[in-house]
Amino acid sequence: MIYTIKPISSFLLVLLSLWCFIAIKAEGKDLSTKKMVALLEPIEQHAIQYGEGDIKVYVFIDPKCPHSRDFISMIFENQKMRTIYRYHIYFYELKRFNSHFLIGAIYSAPSPLQRMLEVMVGKKEITSAQNSDVKIEEKIDDIKRVAEQIGVSKRPYLIVAKEWD
């Protein structure tokens, strides 16, 4: 199998992908897409999946980041993108947004996808304090560890993988 970064039909997604790829090179993380996907595969069960497409897109976002919110809103509003791509969404906190509590609240919701859309698209405020579950903290730590290995520095951060047999 060969994994590669493939241009996305939406101009904005192409720019975001290029920005993310440049960020990887700028930080000295010269990882191939295949190596990045290999790092992500063990944590795929932690991803919030959105879309039914054949092309996997791994996305690191912060729920309070305005660019991440714009990205999720764009996917929400575009059925075609959800038909072509299958998004594996990981929450990775940008420290300046202090979003750890919100990330835990989304992951601990009965439907994390629904809660993510309520917060990021519907701008719902989560104010009730919920005790953080040990499993949720482990999930957040697993995602952080992989994000650091990949060199994720921006949000949203996209990795587009396409397989050929």
UniProtKB/TrEMBL annotation:
SUPFAM superfamilies: Thioredoxin-like (SSF52833). InterPro entries: Thioredoxin-like_sf. It comes from the Bacteria. This is Thioredoxin-like fold domain-containing protein.
